[in-house]
Design brief:
By secondary structure, the protein is mainly alpha-helical. It has one domain: AhpD-like (Up-down Bundle). The chain is built from eight helices and no strands. The longest helix has 24 residues. The protein is globular, with a radius of gyration of 16 Å.
Length: about 150
């Protein structure tokens, strides 16, 4: 059986290197102070919502390197029904979904639950991480960046 190859539309980093470098800098800044496993869970979940195959592949690999288990990675798309995630992780995942699906808004309930588990600086970093992964998702989905490519 041969896999279907989705052709990449452009190499964004080559065509718009200044923008790409700016997003890399934003990404590095957004990651500061966040737990590496939580960071990857958030990025995988946003990428699942945005249907970004490249980012799902990339962050799933990074999650494994950070010590995440296969079982938790597999259940991430149904995290609300799973008992494998801590209250802090659940709050981060709920905030991830609310920010990623922004037209539905970020309710006070979701925001306040996250604020219970993250101090203000951590919460700001988490919000930055969520909007940054959404930038990557939109860039890679639009240009059809292929999983397994750099």
């Amino acid at each position: 059986m041969t896999a279907f190859q989705v052709p990449q539309r452009m190499n964004f980093s080559a065509v718009a290197p200044k923008v790409f470098k700016a997003v890399l800098a934003l990404d590095a800044a957004a990651r500061e102070g966040l737990d590496p496993v939580l960071l990857e869970l958030v990025q995988i979940r946003a990428s699942q919502i945005n249907h970004c195959a490249y980012c799902i592949d990339y962050h799933t690999s990074d999650a494994r390197k950070a010590g995440e288990t296969e079982e938790r990675i597999y259940q991430l798309s149904a995290w609300e029904e799973s008992s494998l995630y801590t209250e802090k992780e659940r709050a981060a995942l709920a905030l991830t979904e609310a920010v990623t699906l922004l037209p539905q808004g970020v309710s006070d309930e979701v925001y306040n639950e996250a604020a219970k588990h993250f101090d203000e600086k951590e919460l700001a970093q988490l919000i930055a991480l969520i909007f940054t992964v959404n930038v990557w998702n939109r860039m890679n989905v639009t240009t059809r960046k292929t999983p397994g490519t750099e």
